[in-house]
Amino acid sequence: MRYIPNSNAIRRQMLTAMGVPSVDSLFESIPPQARLNRPLNLPPGMSEPDQMDHMAAVAEANRGAGMTSFLGAGCYNHFIPLTISTLTSRAEFFTAYTPYQPEIAQGTLQATFEFQTFTCLLTGMDVANASLYCGASATAEAVLMALRIKKGRRKVALAATLHPHYRQVVETYTRYLDVELETLPADPKTGRVDQAALAKLGPDTACLVVQSPNVFGVVEDLSGQSAAAHGAGALAVAVVNEPYSLALLQPPGKLGFDIVAGEAQAFGIPMGFGGPHLGFMAAREEFLRQMPGRICGQTVDADGRRGFVLTLSTREQHIRREKATSNICTNQSLMMLRAVIHLTLMGPEGLKEAARQSAGLARWFESEALKIKGYKLRYTGPRFNETALVCPVPAQNIVALGEAQGLVPGLDLGRLIPGEDHTLLAAFTENNTLAQAQNLIALLKEAAQ
User: Fold this and answer.
1) Which of 118, 160, 175, 361 would be 428's cystine partner, CB 3.0–4.6 Å?
2) Residue 303 binned pLDDT confidence (cut-offs 50, 70, 90)
């Protein structure tokens, strides 16, 4: 048996050693009205074979394994080299906790340092941290960081094209703070943040938060948006939830942004029915001490040998609570290690080639889809590897038709955004083939008929 509970005899021995007459007496301090005076509403226990059969039946209810997928919106089916799972399956990586003792955690610390380095190279920023959970929480932490830097300013401008889940997490983080969240609408034609709305940023705005490519797959005008934020004395925060875009597009740091936050799932981490994921954050060096999480640095020991240490840990467990910048505590080093191995194996040219293939297939799909009567682009702004199509029938109908044929045609954006029930968001990666894209075109034709 894998889990052996204490026998009645052992329980009696434990109670005797504690000088307590019964288990119930351990809970006498809890008022009777606060106790649950009935058994838990749980089914009876199962034997191990029955339990394995039950779990197999539950797993079979999941759809996705073996299906052709064009899902995106922050979770992407990029190629994952087998080497990653082979290396991260080593036992020492399974329990990689916070590296408090550098003398026995050099491997974990070096992986952290390399991840920070990769993050800076990709984003064009000066410093990066580690141990952020996902793109949504990283975005919320970036907002809190901006509010600390811009003390006295209580307004946060969020692009309407920010992923709705990201916005919801920001709302949760700021719910009990004296903060006003302002939504900047999108241009009805291009899908980029409306220029007139940018002009209204004022002296009470702490930061502007823009996602690029945004939830509709449109690449934003980051240069102009950072200039608008700085013109109002605010910080510019870029959100990237498709990091492969950074292999082809100008990095936000080169376009004037102060903080870059996002999702690194695309780097060697399976889609996994939604998790676990890996957040990242980078910023300008002047804002280093306001960054949450951990920052690993390179140094030398007493003998001059290269070593790695936690240079900065700004959570409440490490420093005085009132000076802490975050309560981030889970160490994401297993996911981070997958990303580091992935980026090392791919290299700059590998990332660029995968990004080119992804973008190229998306452009082919668009050109073919627009030939079908009833389909049109939701927005005309430049795109990377995701296409938002307005469909002649509800997008959920297309999704249902595709699933019946073993194909996930994309995301029904109506599930995320009110009023977008006829919008299908299809994402393309180097894992998708031309034949698969042709099958998707055939599906769109069938749905239109």
Assistant:
1) 361
2) very high
